[in-house]
Amino acid sequence: MDITASVAPSPLGPQVFASNETKLEDQDSEERVRPPQQFLSGITEVAETLIKTGQRQDPEVLFHSLKMAKGLQGPLDKSNLNLWLTYLNILRGEGYDFSNEKMLELLLTKATKEELMQITRNTDMRDGLIRLLMFSYPQMLPKMIERGLMKAHMSPDDMYYWQRISGTKRLTTSDIEAWKDVFRQLYDWFVLVEASRDNTNVVSDGAILEVLVQKRGQQEAMGFLHWLRREPGMEDRADSLLQLLVKTHPDKVQVKLQVMLRSCLEIAISPEEVFRMLPIPPIHDDGMEEWVDVFYVIKVWFVYVDSFRNRGYDFSDGAIVETLVQNRGQQEAMEFLFWFRREPDMKDRVDSLQQLLVMKYPAMLQAMFQSCLEASISPEEVLRLIPIAATHGDDKRVLTDVFYGIKVWFVYVDSFRNRGYDFSDGAIVETLVQNRGQQEAMEFLFWFRREPDMKDRVDSLQQLLVMKYPAMLQAMFQSCLEASISPEEVLRLIPIAATHGDDKRVLTDVFYGIKVWFVYVDSFRGRGYDFSDGAIVETLVQNRGQQEAMEFLFWFRREPDMRDRVDSLQQLLVMKYPAMFRNVQSCLEASISPEEVLRLIPIAATHGDDKRVLTDVFYGIKVWFVYVDSFRGRGYDFSDGAIVETLVQNRGQQEAMEFLFWFGANLT
Predict the structure, then answer these.
(1) Which domain holds residue 323?
(2) Position 386 in a domain
(3) Residue 223 Cα distances to 103, 228, 233, 266, angstroms
(4) For 148-157, what is each residue's pLDDT tens digit?
(5) What counts of helices (H) and strands (E) characterise the chain?
(6) What does the DSSP assignment read for 299-310?
(7) Quick check: 48 pLDDT over 60?
(8) What does 467-504 look like in DSSP terms, one character per residue?
(9) With the CA atoms of 316, 321, 324 and 329 taken in that order, what torsion angle do they form, in degrees rounded to the nearest 10?
(10) Does residue 519 lie in a domain region?
(11) pLDDT bracket for residue 476 (50, 70, 90)
(12) Domain boundary residue among 150, 185, 216?
């Protein structure tokens, strides 16, 4: 018999019972307790009379009038119950409203669940009572199977029949309460299926989904699984079914994904949870086709994230990274992001996410670089992927992190070059400046000078930096002072071009560079460090040669506040490199008077009969006389009186007389 509220399936239903035979152990004992046939006939006549004559008693009134005993185990009680169930089924078939809940409420006034289950052995009543019990108590299925009342191996389709959901049509309403009611009924069926699986019944997830989609349609099936996720302990189970549902028909994956994500959005499921529902296959090294599938699904997930945010919900970029890592691991998360860099509209976003990934998992930096190399990504782009914090004064921790990040980037640059790609030192400097600004670029390079194997390379890069951004020279000097770098090293950092004849532009740049360097020397000394005038001369000669050193100093004589200092330096230069005595060409080019030139010649004081000193003096004065003649030869005026006066002013009357006697005795 059928006791469902509406649609009536086949009266017998699917063959799910263990047997249609009566399970009483002793046929004779049954005969002994069976009521007289005429008594049963009398009850039947009453029922038939009620039905045939159209006299309609309320089912509840009739139930109480039958006065069945507690337990409903007596033959007469079972007959009366059978009569009542038959009567109720007829009324329902004619549209009378009497719910299963009310029916069960009445039955439980006469018998317990266990006693009702025992009554189901009665063939006449088993269909109706089993369905009623399974509607209300799906957890009783194991006992029913154990007692042989139902088959142990039912299909999900058979179990669907025995649930009240089988009597409902697919939803065509947007009424949320109607949807929830259907989902609760489906939940009873699902719990029944899961209970049968726990009882060794082999039911695949595919079979469960097949019944869901066939009976309820794709939209209801998807909605139910989302609803199921909210039930305690069901989240992982629902996620696996959602994944399988989307994958079931590959040709419809796109449609199913859209349906699923719309459903998720309506009930505000977080992107983290949605990710676990997505059918993302594992990746194999040569699985290019799998990568394409993964790429598509992850891209759809990013669309969901944006839609989720657009509705006012919060899901940060950090949460995106964490979700990828927690579900797929650091390596695959990195690989997903590299795939997305191929999308023009995703590149900037992905760069930011990759920075967050490496910031949270620093060990991924090397893996990221390897992926970048494989994809031939330029160092310029790679630097944007490195999470380098802004430098803040003396924060050693931040500076150390910065140093590490940039150092690894230099390794990437070298690896990139070793693969035959071009990335010049100028490009290194420009990349640092564009990403971090001139000041931080300079600071990074100073940090690297501490590495013995990086010093020469960094000096070259700092020269390029100052050459491209001359205003950085002062900043560089300040950094050098903070690091107590000697003027000797600093001069190598200044991009001073070689002098070429009368190229005024080059000479002006040189003049500016050396002049700033002199300022650095003074600041260095002002901090208490030692750097003598002799060291200045030696540094100029070692870096530029004797000739250019002399030319630099002549340029500086044009500066009024530098003249006396330069004269002293030129004396030291000539004293250290005597061959420079003959080099009076620079003085002539600058039309420097012999009076000034004499002050440049390092003539020691004479000491008695010290022949070596006297010889040096004689040589110096002799060179000066040659200069006087050359100066006059260019048409400039310098009289003999001026010669005498110059000697006296610079060396005194006594030495002037001695010089002249030397010349008188040695000149022929």
Answers:
(1) 316-412
(2) yes
(3) 31, 9, 18, 10
(4) 666 656 788 8
(5) 32, 0
(6) HHHHHHHHHHHH
(7) no
(8) HH-TTHHHHHHHHHHHTT--HHHHHHHS--PPP-TT-H
(9) -150
(10) no
(11) confident
(12) 150
